[in-house]
Amino acid sequence: MLRRLVILGGILLVVAAVVLGVWLARQPGRFALVRIDLDGLVQTKQAAAMEKIGIEGGSNLLRIDPRAVKERLQDLPWVRSVQVRRVFPDALSVQISEKIPVCMGVVDERLVILDEYGQPIKPFEMGDPYLLPVVRPKNKQEAAREIVWMINLLDRFSSIKEIISEAVGFAGKRWVLYTNRGVKLLISENAEQELELLLKLQKKYKILDRKIRQVELRIPGKVAVRQ
User: Fold this and answer.
1) Peptide bond preceding 89 in cis form (omega within 30 of 0)
2) Is 9 a domain residue?
3) DSSP code, position 129
């Protein structure tokens, strides 16, 4: 019986010491926050991120909830994921991964910036740093998939992508690509072969540098040009 009481008393002393230690550690002035290491910002403004973090210098690190900070930062439109950790004795580390803008689209009649998954990032506003092609799929239910398909296609033809201002989808997996000079490029689901042929003709004849209105590429192995 005495042995049990001694063991129980020892346990209570350990628990009391731990509780006291935690209480003392959480008091003002202990483990005070001196700096916030914020990395990964590209489009997100540092001031906006710091406002979302919402922690003042001198705050006790033990009182900071990393999960709450993460949730607040993920409300920012450009933020894809966040890692937040306390670095004792005096720092908070915040690592942000942002969404990648690949094109623009139209959602509820508003021009929006879309990410690499075809999902909206934010409405396009004057002053946004990107001048991206607008992609408008025909099938709204499969819009994200079709947008990703189109962007992946254009990425394989970088010299064509840099002159495309808009890609518009039509029934039957047909698309019209509009160049920044107003030329229409008519392509189909066999777009990769069609654009390869266009590149060959551009290299040999510079057809996209001429005064033309349309290039029909959907006829297998042929090209029809309209002036």
Assistant:
1) yes
2) no
3) S
Residue 224 phi, psi dihedral angles, 5° rounding? -115, 125
Residue 120 placed within a domain: yes
Per-residue pLDDT, 128 = 83
Task: Please check whether residue 5 lies inside any domain of the structure.
Answer: no
Domain that holds residue 128: 101-226
The pLDDT value given to residue 227: 85
Q: What is the mean pLDDT of residues 85-111?
A: 95
What pLDDT digit, counting tens, does each position of 11-28 carry? 544 433 333 334 434 445
Ramachandran category for residue 31: left, alpha or beta (phi over 0 → left; psi -120 to 50 → alpha):
left
For the chain, what is the domain count?
2
Name the domain boundary from 81, 98, 115: 98
Taking 50 as the threshold, does the pLDDT of residue 67 lie above it?
yes
CA nearest to 69, candidates 89, 95, 44, 41: 95
**CA 181 from chain center: how many Å?**
29
Rounded to 5 degrees, φ, ψ at 222 are -130, 165
Strand partners, 214: 184, 226
Q: Same domain, yes or no, for 109 and 203?
A: yes
Boundary residue ending a domain (75, 98, 121) = 98
Domain assignment of residue 92, yes or no? yes
Task: Let me know: does 118 contact 144? Beta carbons within 8 Å.
Answer: yes
Structure tokens at 102: 């690949």
In this structure, what token pair is assigned to residue 216?
A: 């029909």
